[in-house]
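Following up on my earlier thread - several people asked me to post the actual chain instead of describing it. Fair enough. Here it is, all 127 residues.
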Amino acid sequence: TGISPEFVQFRGGNDFKVPSSAPFYILRPEVVEAFYYLSVLTGDPIYREWGWEVFQSIEKYCKTEYGYGSLHDVNAPSMKPEDRMESFFLAETLKYLYLLFDPDSEIDILNKHVFNTEAHPFKIFNN
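Reply from S.P.:
Thanks for posting it. Predicted structure:
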């Protein structure tokens, strides 16, 4: 599906596997959040490309009639998404994707702003 599971286990070398206890995806923001920060910090366009791939996969596999839903198994693309959307999907996942694709954003995480745990930007006050 192109969507990461809840977590993976690394084997020797560069290989990893999806453990049987975590093949699901509940629309968490952490991966796209990392892409956003890495894109800002490095300027490398690969993070936008990866973010676009994640967005396309979410659209393809998680979209429901009225929103987006969790996947029971990211390795089973024929399964329909669950009819349940976590609030952090809108508050964080889509916000980080939006910011990732908005190069003209006034949010400046290096000098002027910090995000709280719900991805709300707060201005840094200097004395």
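The beta strands are 9-10, 16-17, 113-115, 121-123. That should answer part of your original question.
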